[in-house]
Specification:
It contains twelve helices and seven strands. It is globular, with a radius of gyration of 19 Å. Helix 3 (44-67) runs parallel beside helix 5 (94-112), helix 3 (44-67) runs antiparallel to helix 7 and helix 8 (165-177) packs across helix 10 (235-242). 38% of the residues are buried. Strands 5-4-3-6-7 form a five-stranded mixed β-sheet. A two-stranded antiparallel ribbon has the order 1-2. The chain has 270 residues and is an alpha+beta fold. The protein has helices spanning 7-25, 30-33, 44-67, 78-85, 94-112, 117-120, 138-155, 165-177, 179-185, 235-242, 257-261, 263-266; strands at residues 123-124, 136-137, 195-201, 206-212, 215-221, 229-233, 252-255. A hairpin with a 2-residue loop joins strand 4 and strand 5.
Length: 270
């Protein structure tokens, strides 16, 4: 959907969220860290481990892209490696994991401060035998990291600040632009669902999404564009809906209710 925020601004937003998360976690004891998060099935420690691995993987992928090497978020494959990244390493205490997250997120922030406009546009090339994220560049990698720290930061349920304007303005059009890929490659979309949805932002651009089979079209459109259903909210609420954090019942809908409710069946959250 086009670049809306530059790489340096994304990196700055990531660094600000890193500082906020690390500052809040520094005051959390083991009992609190082992308590459930807002993400079903994950406690806070699971999220901290996931964010720690994400910082390490993202820094490695950035360095590989700059060096012209192929790279993967999960070098051993998602199915093989992911579960272990959600747990402390052998012998690690909860405090060790918190300190490690702070160290690794700082390392990523320092790396990203060295990038210029050209480097932000470098492709991130995955090995053919280990595809996961698809065709992206370092700039997109920054949005993915910002998504991790904004969304999972909120999942920690530690009174962090709301999602930043930088995150919403960059991630909403990017996520909409990714809907065709989600429809084609996601593990559980219902490709029998066909329809059109006018996603109406009350504080920003609105969009028209059309799907039939594997074919998906996403275009910027005016509120009230011809569609089976309209889903209405702020840009932040629409992004949260697409990411599976806001229920349809919490948004205003118009038109046919079945098509409105079928949006997430056609485009399951990541």
């Amino acid at each position: 959907m086009g670049i809306t925020v530059g790489g340096a601004a994304l990196a700055g937003a990531v660094a600000a969220r890193h500082r906020e998360i690390n500052r809040r976690l520094s005051n959390v004891d083991e009992r609190e860290l082992r308590s459930p998060s807002l993400l079903p099935g994950w406690d806070r420690l699971t999220i901290v481990c996931h964010l720690r691995f994400g910082a390490v993987a993202t820094a490695r992928m950035t360095e590989d892209a700059v060096a012209g090497r192929s790279t993967s978020f999960y070098p051993d494959g998602r199915a093989v490696q992911r579960q272990a990244t959600l747990e402390p390493d052998r012998g690690e205490s909860h405090a060790d994991v918190v300190r490690s997250l702070a160290d690794q997120s700082t390392r990523l922030d320092e790396l990203w401060r060295t990038l210029d406009d050209r480097l932000w546009r470098l492709p991130v090339e995955e090995p053919e035998e280990n595809p996961d994220l698809g065709r992206i560049d370092v700039w997109t990698l920054a949005i993915l990291r910002l998504t991790e720290v904004e969304v999972h930061g909120s999942d920690l349920d530690l009174d962090l600040s709301p999602w930043s304007t930088t995150f919403v303005s960059a991630a909403l059009p990017m996520r909409l632009g990714w809907l065709p890929t989600r429809r084609a490659n996601h593990r559980s979309p219902d490709r029998l669902v066909a329809g059109s949805w006018n996603l109406v932002s009350t504080d920003g651009p609105s969009f028209l999404v059309r799907a039939r089979g594997k074919r998906v079209a996403v275009d910027q459109a005016e509120p009230g564009a011809d569609a089976d259903a309209s889903i209405i909210g702020t840009s932040r609420e629409l992004l949260s809906f697409i990411l599976g954090r806001t229920a349809l019942d919490d948004l205003e809908t118009r038109g046919d209710q079945d098509p409105a409710a079928s949006f997430l069946a056609a485009f399951p959250p990541p």
